[in-house]
Design a protein that fits this description.
Structural class: mainly beta
Number of domains: 1
CATH class: Mainly Beta
Strand order of the largest sheet: 1-2-3-6-7-8-9-10-11-14-15-16-17-18-19-22
CATH topology: Porin
Number of helices: 1
Order of helices and strands: HEEEEEEEEEEEEEEEEEEEEEE
């Protein structure tokens, strides 16, 4: 995911959090608890520091990420509003499928890297990403406008963005209209050459939050992201020819992309001390990729100091129109990147939050995800005098992912 896409989502989430804060009522206690889809940020006019360490690991020796993040939320008073500072550092290592065609036989690449039989060609990498974000907002009448800027730098990518969001309450605080825009100008600089290739993005979102009753909350929003410029992955290749005889050439994607999403969130508070949060997201773009996401989270207070939040997420997507595991002949647009293929996944997680004192909370989270490709490849080899015929069915989208996060919040 590009850094600017993450920045847009952060800006839109801030707008929604401000909307929920503006429409907050005492009769919705647990809908503003925990880290769920309808969680409210900054329930009190109070400064705080949130620190988190995330560990992400894919199966098969693929991508591994260590991501420490610190967010400082400073309340400057009614006259000056609030200021947020976000600092993050990603240490990324491992390997990623190149898009090349798998082979049952053991092969050796030109660089001397051995590829085991029945496995996908992988390219190893190691990178560091540093990012900083700054946001300022202030309540003006029934509005809560904010502006944010962000900058991120890694080995081959520079991301710069600016965004604006606002939330406007109406109907005596029962409803809130929220929206946001984000503009970015990025530079892609592949390590394989000395080029600096531009990539631009513009994001727009609009939504509304409504208090349905004393224990129910609904939020519906829509977004559009327009991308242009260099949208290829400079490290991916595509096989052209037949499985028995093919050449590998760099992938090529369209230089524009329009991405739409509709998101619906619903929260219900139970009298026994729990809150259910349900989120459904439908995504589609002009590359013919469509995706559905359903997420459920349940927050339950064991007592005043402990909050337990199990969750589950289901995801499925179709393939882009120009995706293929191999191509019979060269086409204008081609990609074998598994992220553009058809696949589905299921994720389960558990988060625990403990209130250590009036000013300090600690939290621990754990998720496990299983992802399965829908367009598996079966490769085979002919029998010889010494070895029997063999075959293997494989998909680059087949993947297991584990994440662990630990953090704390200090209010002052």
């Amino acid at each position: 995911m590009a850094a600017t896409e993450r920045a847009l989502r952060r800006a839109l989430r801030r707008a929604q959090r401000r909307a929920r804060k503006a429409s907050r009522r005492p009769s919705l206690p647990l809908l503003a608890v925990g880290a769920g889809a309808l969680a409210a940020h900054g329930a009190q006019a109070q400064s705080q520091i949130d620190a988190r360490l995330l560990y992400y690991k894919e199966s098969g020796g693929r991508t591994q990420v260590i991501d420490p993040v610190v967010n400082v939320h400073q309340d400057l008073g009614d006259a000056w509003g609030t200021l947020d500072l976000l600092l993050a550092y990603d240490s990324i290592s491992g390997a990623s499928p190149t898009g090349g065609y798998p082979s049952v036989d053991v092969t050796t690449s030109a660089s001397g890297h051995t590829i085991a039989g029945g496995s996908l060609p992988l390219a190893s990498y190691n990178d560091r990403r540093k990012s900083v974000g700054l946001a300022w907002g202030r309540k003006i009448g029934s509005n809560l406008p904010s502006i944010d800027v962000s900058y991120a730098k890694e080995n081959d990518y520079t991301a710069r963005s600016v965004g604006f969001s606002d939330a406007w309450t109406f109907a005596g605080g029962r409803g809130t209209l929220h929206g946001g825009v984000d503009f970015s100008s990025d530079i892609v600089a592949p390590v394989t050459n000395k080029l600096e290739l531009p990539k631009k993005q513009q994001g727009f979102a609009l939504g509304g939050t409504w208090i349905l009753g004393e224990r129910d909350l609904l939020d519906v929003s829509a977004s559009l992201m327009k991308q242009s410029g260099y949208l290829d992955d400079p490290y991916k290749i595509v096989p052209v020819g037949t499985p028995a005889s093919f050449v590998e050439i760099p992938e090529h994607r369209p230089d524009t992309r329009q991405r739409w999403a509709i998101v619906s969130k619903y929260g219900h508070y139970f009298l026994w001390g729990g809150a259910l949060k349900a989120t459904y997201r439908y995504y589609w773009d002009d590359w013919s990729l469509k995706a559905h996401t359903l997420e459920l989270q349940y927050d339950h207070r064991l007592n005043e100091d402990w909050l337990v939040s199990p969750s589950v997420r289901l995801y499925t997507q179709s393939a882009a129109s120009f995706w293929g595991s191999t191509f019979a002949a060269k086409q204008e647009f081609m990609s074998s990147d598994y992220r553009l293929a058809a696949f589905s996944s299921i994720l389960g997680g558990l988060a625990v939050k403990h209130k250590m004192s009036e000013s300090v909370d600690v939290n621990l989270g754990f998720t496990v995800q299983s992802q399965v490709g829908k367009d598996s490849i079966t490769v085979s080899k002919a029998a010889t005098r010494t070895t029997p015929a063999g075959s293997a069915t494989i998909s680059a989208a087949d993947l297991d992912v584990t994440t662990i996060s630990v953090g704390f919040t200090w209010r002052y």
